[in-house]
Amino acid sequence: MYTKRNLESTLIHASKSFPALFVGGPRRAGKTTLVKHLFKDYKYVLLDEMDVRTYASEDPRGFLEEHAPPVIIDEIQNVPELFSYIKARIDKEGKPAQWVLTGSQQWALMKGISESLAGRIAILHLYPFGIDEMLHTTNQGIKGIEGYIAGLRKATVIKSNKISVGDWILKGGYPESLFSNKETRKLWFKSYVQTYLDKDIRGNIKESNLRDFERFIQLMAARTAQVINTAELSRELGVSLPTIKQWLTLLEASGLIFFLMPYHNNFGKRIIKTPRCYFMDTGLACYLVGLQEAEHALKGPMAGALFETACVSQLFKRLSVWGDEKHLYFFRSTDGIEVDILLESGNNLYPLEIKLSSTIVSSKVKNISRWLKLAGKVKGPSLVVSTSQQIGNVAEGIKNIHFSLL
To answer: How far apart are CA 151 and CA 157, in angstroms?
Structure first.
């Protein structure tokens, strides 16, 4: 059964203006299902099969004649040389939405798009299911950060079909993981990692480093929601610092991790300026660190980091639909003032604290209170995201909301 995605409205809107559309994102996030659903009458060709890939690579003109637009070309990263030929066809007849392309995000792929199709293609990203998509509570009428915050501020009731926090963290958002039992889910994630290593990584690093790279992913999962110390990773794995930085770039380009930048406009304090790293999917992170039960994920040493990762990832997915993910920050000063999330919109900053707790009292939001005094006029309404079902104000100007409302 098809599940409605937040990206639909943005993709439909872009299809009215751009000759080509590109939907990128991590493998198995639902890209093919989405574009096939929205563009039902389009031809479809998959570049994953060797004979099709060889044909497209050796005779691109013939391939594009046979698969004339409107067409969906899936996994286009396998034949990036097609971009220049698609560009030539667009320049001859630039009707909207004639080319719908999908692919995993890799540097070679994005470089080909930017060099050949700049100004002719809408670049969009689809990630694993967000919690609102899982609960079928998507609201595509929301168009930006201010509307999103306003909706959260107005919320008074938790949806009756809410998901448990343990399941949310343990299963993540990949469709196959969501609807699998424990054994099948473990096997699926094992196969996912192997496919990722074979198809996305093998050609980008030395063959001798593949095993180290797999250990690197596991170490990164254990460090989700933290500032990453590249020198420490280099020493632990026994590989060079430039190699660690290259591997971080590969993980980010593949959509498996993202970085949250610190907000460092002058508030009269010394600010920590190193970004934090988050896994895009907590289900994958749990698999990589060996967590197989919801209880272990919720009560183990990584519980707080995994809940924070789930919430920040949900915000990242939401904002990416509107192209606003670059307006997502955190704040930390050297004298101890820390806010988990700052959302920037215009001249306003909206602070959010994330608490894995079913009891929220004013003493638990003192960091936001301190930040509000520091920020002055730029502050907006403040929120606490928690597991507490008591929705409402916990201090002056600070409201608690349940995580399922994100």
So the answer is: 12
Question: Which pLDDT band holds residue 24 (cuts at 50, 70, 90)?
Answer: very high
Candidates 381, 396, 364; CA nearest to 155 is: 381
pLDDT of residue 170: 96
**Cα 347 to Cα 394: distance, rounded to the nearest angstrom:** 25
The predicted model gives 236-247 an average pLDDT of 94
* Dist CA 295 CA 42 (whole Å): 45
C-alpha to C-alpha distances, 126 to 11, 34, 171, 278, nearest whole angstrom: 10, 9, 18, 17
In DSSP terms, which residues pair with 395 in a beta bridge? 398
Cα gap 51→29, rounded to integer Å = 25
Top mean-pLDDT range of 69-78, 117-126, 329-338: 69-78
Q: Are 399 and 381 in contact (CB under 8 A)?
A: yes
pLDDT in tens, 335-370: 778 899 999 988 888 999 999 998 888 777 888 888
CA–CA gap between residue 29 and residue 357 (Å, rounded): 30
Q: What are phi and psi of 400, to 5 degrees?
A: -90, 135
Copy the structure tokens of residue 88: 């030539």
Alpha-carbon span 151 to 142, nearest angstrom: 9
Which of 314, 258, 256, 259 lies closest to 285 in space, CA to CA?
256
pLDDT at residue 370, as a whole number: 84
Would the CA dihedral through 355, 357, 362, 366 be positive or negative? negative
Number of Cα atoms under 13 Å in the Cβ half of residue 6: 31
Separation between Cα atoms, residue 304 and residue 278, nearest integer Å: 13
For 389, residues 6+ apart whose C-beta sits below 8 A from its C-beta are 158, 358, 402
Task: Assess contact for 237 and 203: CB atoms under 8 A.
Answer: no
Ordered by start, the domain boundaries in the chain are: 7-125, 131-405
* Span 117-172, pLDDT tens digits: 888 899 999 999 999 999 888 876 777 899 899 999 998 888 766 789 999 999 99
- Asked whether the beta carbons of 384 and 352 are under 8 A apart, the reply is yes
Could you give the maximum distance between any two Cα atoms of the chain, in Å?
68
pLDDT at residue number 397: 82
The CATH classification number of 7-125 equals 3.40.50.300
**What is the per-residue DSSP string for 92-106?**
H---TT-EEEEE---
